UniProtKB/TrEMBL annotation:
It comes from Desulfoferula mesophila. GO terms for molecular function: ATP binding; metal ion binding; nucleoside diphosphate kinase activity. The keyword ATP-binding applies. Homotetramer. GO terms for biological process: CTP biosynthetic process; GTP biosynthetic process; UTP biosynthetic process. ATP binds at K9, F57, R85, T91, R102, N112. This is Nucleoside diphosphate kinase.
Amino acid sequence: MERTLILIKPDAMARGLAGTVLSRFEAKGLKIAGVKMIQLDEALLKAHYSHLADKPFFPTICEFMSRTPVIALCLEGLEAVEVCRSLCGVTNSRKAAPGTIRGDLGMSMQANLVHASDSVETAKAEVARFFKDEELFGYEQPVINFLYASDERG
Ligand code: ADP
């Protein structure tokens, strides 16, 4: 099973869509391994968006992402990284496919409701950045026997 980091962004928080966004992941069958509300500060934003530090829109991302607290989630499942990226849709919400979170709920490139780690390697680093070991939970989820076939569960 893989783990990935999701952030429910300030636009979703402000619009009262945090539950809707979370429920999309839950309904898909992803397991919540960790959840917390957090106010992103400059140091965390610089680390999280280091790949965009030289982009002209970097200051506006930092302003936007710190406008309200966000909800950080660590979600678990088979190929969770790829599955969550697909559920989110492409970065620009106007171009995101209907059926995706961004495609159904957003109109903006920046205010696109949700962050999801973009690779297995990034996910490991991002989960570790946002969650301490003791904030992540392994617990029985009997429904797993119906979510996956026996040969998929490993
Ligand atoms: P994604 O979140 O889809 O993986 P990126 O890692 O490229 O996309 O960008 C991180 C976030 O920065 C995006 O989700 C979006 O909020 C913001 N962003 C990306 N590109 C732009 C842009 N051209 N203008 C404004 N904001 C942007």
